[in-house]
Design brief:
Largest sheet: 2 strands, antiparallel
Helix content: 40-55%
Radius of gyration: 17 Å
Number of helices: 7
Number of strands: 2
Oligomer: single chain
Number of domains: 2
Distance between the termini: 21 Å
Low-confidence stretches: none
Length: 139
């Protein structure tokens, strides 16, 4: 899957490296929750994904998260020094596990179908066709 992701990323200007440290991402998810309240969810997620997948930064490090927040115009110091949003994130994780999601990206469609991890185009076509969003899968 890594070669596939690198190839797909290169097509849209993303240079995946997969060398970043894997650690506890509770704080990065709490930062995303804060970003939601500021209307900057997408910016935050894009920044964190770039940090991890392209720049090999440790998104479990609070200094790195503060840098990301600053770059998207959010003051996150108080949130990251406390435990705000931790319960929200933990509940979302529990819900994700119940739905069979164990990684990112993860997609929930109509609250009934979930896809976890990167998926081939054919998988999306099949799922969307079964749900009635595509008349026929493209072949």
């Amino acid at each position: 899957m890594v070669p596939y992701m690198k190839d797909q990323g290169a097509k849209v200007g993303i240079k995946f490296s997969y060398g970043g440290k894997v650690g506890n991402t509770l704080d990065s998810h709490r930062l995303v929750e804060l970003a939601k309240t500021k209307g900057k969810t997408d910016q935050c997620i894009e920044k964190l994904m770039s940090y991890y997948f392209e720049q090999e930064k440790d998104i479990s490090d609070k200094k790195v998260l503060l840098q990301a927040a600053t770059e998207i115009g959010i003051d996150a110091k108080e949130v990251l020094e406390g435990d705000q949003y931790a319960d929200t994130v933990k509940k979302e994780v529990e819900n994700a596990y119940r739905m069979g999601i164990s990684g990112v990206p993860a997609f929930i469609i109509n609250r009934s179908v979930s896809l976890s991890g990167a998926q081939e185009t054919e998988t999306w076509e099949e799922v969307l066709s079964e749900l009635g969003y595509l008349d026929t899968p493209n072949k």
